[in-house]
Amino acid sequence: MSLQILQIVTKSNTKTSRILFFIALCIVSVTLWYTNSLANKLKFEEQKKVALWAKATKELSEISPSNYNIGFVFEVVNNNTTVPVIQVNEDGEIIAHRNIKGPQTDVELQKQVTFMKNKYPPIEVELIDGSKEYIYYKDSRLLQNLKNFPIIILSIIGAFIFIAYIAFSNAKIAEQNKVWTGMAKETAHQIGTPLSSLLGWVEILKSKKSDKQTVIEIENDLERLSVIASRFSKIGSLPKLKKLNLVSLITDSVDYMQKRASSKIVIKFMPSKQYINALINKDLFDWVIENMIKNSFDATSEKGVILIKLESNQSHTFVDIIDNGVGIKKSQFKEIFEPGFTSKKRGWGLGLSLAKRIIHDYHKGQIKLLHSKPNLETKFRIILNN
Fold first, then answer.
1. Which are the contacts of 13, defined by CB distance < 8 A and separation ≥ 6?
2. In 3D, which of 86, 200, 99 has the Cα closest to residue 141?
3. Which residues contact 201 (CB under 8 A, 6 or more apart)?
4. Residue of 124, 34, 128, 42 whose CA lies nearest to 87
5. Of 25, 67, 154, 250, which is most buried with the most CB atoms under 10 A?
6. 127-136, 252-261, 285-294: least confident range
């Protein structure tokens, strides 16, 4: 039931993240479209304003104050309070300018003319005496701000998505941790009840002088059950890490698993040195090694070879688990450590997920699949801190 809850939580979180991503994409698309539409409209209006300004300038050169009301023309010219414009004669001399921010020396104005020339073609004004003048212009500050508006909005939306993703990821991890802890504690509790009863029955067998070897085997299995219960009880709490020799620990795990393996499967352990120490919790690390070996058991069928290599440097220890099993598809590399994922017909999909949790969360190390070639070599690596 706990596994089913974990799978439901994972699927629900995945669906929610997709919905949030779709909503964010819609917001971005609508914002970009609407802002671009407004910018184009404002740009068109500013071009009309500059054209009207140029026309009014031409009118001023042609009309006589005695027969025409020049007040309206002056009003048109003076009404441009937003669009930066520079008026230049045929010789390139600056005649007039308007709405230019910053220094207004001839040198700076000529730089502005060059910039405007690269942005928009000038409006040509033919005067009554046959000479020509040119009106250069560029986008107003309002239009520039409107063009930058999508970048600001996208930055805000990006920040929102990032914060939402972090919050969502933390919530997802918290939910999974809660399910993992509950499942582990319940399993430890369930094992503990018959375990206590069995210990009592062993004492009765001893008192009745039953077959000694039978009692020894029962005690061995009970000891094993106690270890399993201890492992589950440590899930959900911070276990103590000690610097221990991995060579002897892995050797014990290999011996234990080899006795329970098919006669067709061989486990080889190849440490680079006799003593390789790392910070670990013995019960949980043994559990990881056994799970990894079981995973290799399931992957190999005939003439299976499981090779375990152990190496270290000044800061890290590397444990490689290699088998010649059926392998893992490349498309499944990221899924294999997810709770509930399994390629077997019968399986809970908890082995690799549990191994990753123990190594990542409790040992602050790494576990990853380096490569996989079907029926040749599949290689997992565990990285621990020394």
1. 168, 171, 172, 175
2. 99
3. none
4. 124
5. 250
6. 127-136
Question: Residue 361 and residue 340: Cα distance in Å, rounded?
Answer: 18
Q: Could you state, in order of their start, the residue ranges of all structural domains in the chain?
A: 2-143, 239-385
What does the buried/exposed string (b/e) look like for 32-44 if buried means 16 or more CB atoms within 10 Å of the residue's CB?
A: eeebeeebeebbe
27 Cβ partners below 8 Å, 6+ apart? Answer: 157
The answer to whether the beta carbons of residues 306 and 321 sit under 8 Å apart is yes
DSSP symbol at 239: P
Tens digits of residue pLDDT in 69-86 = 444 444 445 556 677 888
DSSP state of 240: P
As a whole number of angstroms, the distance between CA 236 and CA 177 comes to 7
Give the 3-state DSSP-derived string for 98-131, with helices as H, strands as E and coil as C.
Answer: ECCCCCCCHHHHHHHHHHHHHHCCCEEEECCCCC
Q: How many CA atoms lie within 13 A of 306 on its CB side?
A: 28
In 3D, which of 244, 273, 280 has the Cα closest to residue 384? 280
CA 317 to chain centre: 27
Please state the φ and ψ torsions of residue 337, each to the nearest 5 degrees.
Answer: -95, 5
Residue 346, judged by CB atoms within 10 A of its CB (0-12, 13-18, 19+), counts as exposed
* More confident site: 36 or 189: 36
| Residue 202 and residue 218 in contact, taking contact as beta carbons nearer than 8 Å | yes
